[in-house]
Amino acid sequence: MDIARLISVKQLVKSSSSNFKRADAVRWYAVSANGKGVNATKPHIEGVKDIIAVASGKGGVGKSTTAVNLAVALAKTCQLKVGLLDADVYGPSIPTMMKLNGKPEVNEDMKMIPIENYGVKCMSIGFLVGKDSPIVWRGPMVMSALEKLTKGVAWGTLDVLVVDMPPGTGDAQLSMSQRLQLSGALIVSTPQDVALLDARRGASMFRKVEVPILGLVENMSCFKCPHCGEKSYIFGCGGARKTADEMEMEFLGEIPLEVDVRVSSDEGTPIVVSAPDCGVSKAYNQIASNVVRRLAELAKEGQNRPKILL
Question: Is the Cβ–Cβ distance between 3 and 108 less than 8 Å?
Fold first, then answer.
């Protein structure tokens, strides 16, 4: 492999970071002044039909695990062409969870070529930095990196691009929501009240910038004892379903807390691949089917909206 064909992390952020402060200020003013997003005018990634954001209001709720298994389920069970973007710049985990390493090659158009596994094309900042190297970047460099990880990648033809968003509702989340033509957002939370408070904030942010909410997924809904099968509701029971009802979001499903999910993630073999017939895999596959249905519903709603010709 020609080393000149590999892209470095310095090249990733060098070309456009100086322009991002001014651009961000203009975009933020536009949203703040109008009180609305600009979804209709957002640039689209060539060849990508739908882009969905997997988000959470806080870290530690299993967002990345959900994003990985959702992407693989969409590819394997729903037979779609799927990409997975690791937008969690400060804590990239997709390379580990998808058992991928090495740097992406660059094509003739100077676009990075995604690395593929389990039928999913993947891109992550984790491919470009050392495994233990911290990402000590300020906002403009993060925005530049995210820009290159989305539009500087030769995704090819995709039915769905799943974006593993950074946790929270800060600069990166807002910029990704504004710069990409998101088809919808999937919110992940545990059942406990503290996590659900932040999940509400995350959903409100997407609504603020006019990104449709696909629904809410409850992760770690209960712990099922591997010996006796008894269920223990460690983080509470039914909190996400109740929150979905209160915020008029669809409840897409619940994922139990099981040791095999953690083991498969650490080993780089998603549970939907390592144990496709287990209860957790069936839950992920059902959520994937629900996401496909919601995307179809939202597309139909968009077609049925009245068009104003001037």
Answer: no
Give the whole-angstrom CA distance, residue 154 versus residue 2: 18
Return the exposure string of 197-211: e unless at least 16 CB atoms fall within 10 Å of the residue's CB, then b.
ebbbebbebbebbbb
SS3 82: strand
The answer to whether residue 20 scores a pLDDT higher than 90 is: no
The CA-based angle 130-135-139, given to 5 degrees, is 150
Q: What is the pLDDT of residue 7?
A: 55
Residue 53: enclosing H or E segment and its boundaries? strand 48-55
Q: Write out the two tokens for 168.
A: 């929270």
Q: What value, to the nearest 5°, has the Cα angle with vertex 151 and ends 150 and 153?
A: 75
What's the pLDDT band for 61 if we cut at 50, 70, 90?
Answer: confident
pTM beyond 0.85: the answer is: no
User: Two tokens at 117?
Assistant: 């596994």
Which of 171 and 61 is assigned the larger pLDDT? Answer: 61
d(CA 218, CA 196): 10
* Cα–Cα distances in angstroms (integers) from residue 149 to residues 36, 216, 253, in the given order: 26, 26, 30
* 55 SS3 class: strand
Confirm if 45 and 152 have CB atoms less than 8 A apart.
no
pLDDT cut 70: percent of the chain above it: 80
Residue written as tokens 């969905």? 52
What per-residue confidence (pLDDT) applies to 199? 86
CA dihedral (40, 41, 45, 46) positive or negative: positive
Burial profile 12-21: b = 16 or more Cβ within 10 angstroms, e = fewer: bbeebbeebe
